[in-house]
User: Fold Alpha-galactosidase from Mycobacteroides abscessus 21.
Amino acid sequence: MSRGRRALILIMLAVIGIVATVSSVHIFRRQPQPGPAIAGLASTPPLGWNSWNVFGCNIDEQRIERTAQAMVSSGMRDAGYRYVVVDDCWFDPRRNASGNCARTPPVFLTA
Assistant:
């Protein structure tokens, strides 16, 4: 094979390699298009705070109320955080007369 022909093949391979690289970079940089909204589904999961993660069973009404106020003052509410979940230890292990869970009286006074 002559030098000229070999040089031409190398140039063509280089051009093909460059085109393939540029094309693949362009393809992978494309942002995915968001799908259509589906009726009845939220765009985000429920956002909130859970007492168990921080306090475990060491909870009382004032601590939960201060946490909720901090969510508002820090801007979390405006960012979509809507829920304050009192996870555990809020109830008396015994059932009330109706058979339902009842709050632990010394912990939550204004229920």
